[in-house]
Design brief:
257 residues, alpha/beta, Rossmann fold, 2 domains, six-stranded mixed sheet, 10 strands, globular, binds adenosine-5'-triphosphate, phosphonate transport, ATP-binding, membrane, cell membrane
C-alpha cells in the first residue's frame, strides 16, 4: 500500500506543487492522475519515489516511510518501484537488452554491473520481459534505432525485469500516436492485472483514464479535488477538475479507444 499523509510540497520559488494531500492506494490498483497543466501531477508522482523531497507530511510504501528513509533504505524501497517517463529514459547507444538489464542493477553489485556481468538468470528475465511486450526480436538492436512506441515498451520491459511492484508512469504516451498509445496502455494494463502490479499514471487524455483505470484522482493547484471510480468521473466532474469544459485535444477520441 502507498500512503500519503498530509503531504505538501512548496518549491523554492514559493509555488505550491502539492497541498495537504491524503491518499491511500492499495496493491493492484490502476490509478490515473488528471488535471490541468501545472496542477501537480508530476510533483505527486515524483514525490512517491522521492525523486522530489516533500516539504511536509509523510509518504509510506508498504508501511515504510520513504520520506525519512536512509540512503540504504531508500535504495531498497526504490527497487520495488519502476518509473516510466514520457521521454523513455533509455541509454540510446546501448542495446535494448542492456537497457532492460539495467532494471537488475539494484540487485547486483556495482562492479559487476559496470563490467556488464549480469547473471544468466537476469539475462533470461530480461529476455522474458521483452517477449511479454512483444519486442524480443529487437533484443540486440541499438535502442536509438527503435520507434517511440518500441522505446516505451523497452522501458516497460525494464520495470518487468526489475520485478517492480509499483509502476509510476509520468505521461508515458505523450509523444506517441493514438495506435501506439493504446498498445502501451494495453501493456501496462496487462502487467497490472496479470502480476497485480500497482500502476499510477499521469494522463493527458481523460477518456484514456476512464477506459483503463480502476480509480481516477483529479488535482487542481496541488489539491485532490476528485477521487473516485471511472464511472463516477462524469463530464461534469472533469469540468470541475479542469475549471472549464474539456478541449478536443484532451480526448484521444472514441475512434481510437
Ligand atoms: N522545480 C520546480 N521549481 C519551481 N516550481 C516548480 C518546479 N517544478 C514544478 N513547479 C511548479 O509546480 C506546479 C506543479 O507542477 P507539476 O509539474 O507537478 O504539474 P503537472 O500537473 O505535472 O503539469 P504538466 O501537465 O504540465 O506536466 C506548477 O506550478 C509548476 O510550475
Amino acid at each position: 500500500m502507498i500512503e500519503l499523509n498530509d503531504v505538501s510540497k512548496v518549491y523554492s520559488n514559493g509555488v505550491k506543487g502539492l497541498e495537504d494531500v491524503n491518499l491511500k492506494i492499495n496493491k493492484g490498483e490502476f490509478v490515473s492522475i488528471v488535471g490541468l497543466s501545472g496542477a501537480g501531477k508530476s510533483t505527486l508522482l515524483r514525490s512517491i519515489n522521492r525523486l522530489i523531497d516533500i516539504s511536509s507530511g509523510d509518504i509510506k510504501i508498504n508501511e515504510k516511510s520513504i520520506t525519512s528513509a536512509s540512503e540504504k533504505q531508500l535504495r531498497l524501497i526504490r527497487r520495488d518501484i519502476g518509473m516510466i517517463f514520457q521521454s523513455f529514459n533509455l541509454v540510446k547507444r546501448s542495446s535494448v537488452l542492456r537497457n532492460v538489464l539495467s532494471g537488475r542493477v539494484a540487485y547486483n553489485n556495482t562492479l559487476r554491473t559496470l563490467l556488464n556481468l549480469f547473471p544468466q538468470k537476469d539475462v533470461d528475465l530480461a529476455l522474458k520481459a521483452l517477449e511479454r511486450v512483444n519486442i524480443l526480436d529487437k533484443a540486440y538492436t541499438r535502442s536509438s534505432e527503435l520507434s517511440g512506441g518500441q522505446q516505451q515498451r523497452v522501458s516497460i520491459a525494464r520495470t518487468l525485469a526489475q520485478e517492480a511492484k509499483i509502476i509510476l508512469a509520468d505521461e508515458p504516451t505523450a509523444s506517441l500516436d493514438p495506435v501506439t498509445t493504446k498498445q502501451v496502455m494495453d501493456d501496462l494494463k496487462k502487467i497490472n492485472t496479470e502480476d497485480d502490479v500497482t500502476v499510477i499514471i499521469n494522463l493527458h487524455f481523460v477518456d484514456l483514464a476512464k477506459e483503463y483505470s480502476t480509480r481516477i484522482i483529479g488535482l487542481q493547484a496541488g489539491k485532490v479535488v476528485f477521487d473516485g471510480t471511472p464511472e463516477e468521473a462524469t463530464p461534469e466532474v472533469f469540468e470541475e477538475i479542469y475549471g472549464r469544459s474539456l478541449k478536443e485535444d484532451e480526448l484521444l477520441g472514441e475512434e481510437n479507444l
